[in-house]
Amino acid sequence: MLSLLLACAPGSVLAEPTSCEEASDRVGATACVETVDSEATWNAMSAEGDDDGVVRTVKYLVPVSETQPVPTAYVNTQRYDLHYDFLREAFPDDYGLLQWNDYVAMIIDPERRAYYGGNVMERRVDDEREFDFIVWDDPADPSTAPTYEDVLAAWEALQTRFDLGDVAFSPSSSTQAEWAGQWEAEFSIRWDGRDVR
User: Which pTM was predicted?
Assistant: First the structure.
């Protein structure tokens, strides 16, 4: 940071660092970015996919409200296997003591949800490149399935910060798929690689 200050012309004003920049400074490596603005960023943040058709995948978090300390973030998935580990290490003042059950509740429980969480995935379908995102719920509990308004909020936050193409919603449970099939959505919906709507 000192080298950046010394490189500035006298009288110039430095932009305030973003939350991901601050988190990365704390960690000493890139913890997250708030925008996927290039192929280089995508490749640096994402990890190789492990499912059929998924080429690369990156974790994300989208705050439900502006009062949450973590911004919309594409998490360094090469560094963090779990969102939980990312929150505890990169935002220790807010989440350093976060317990697993509380983390699960703030991602999945509609009454306690603080963030939408999931993955953005790059797929190859008939040699075409597609990007999908999932929103986590508890597949065994249909009451936790995200509503249309939930998915719309997540999509708007992700799409406006993703410069590589359109991002479609991919239902990750049978309840999500059933609900999504009834939506008149502003975004594309793909179930198992097929367009639903």
Answer: 0.87
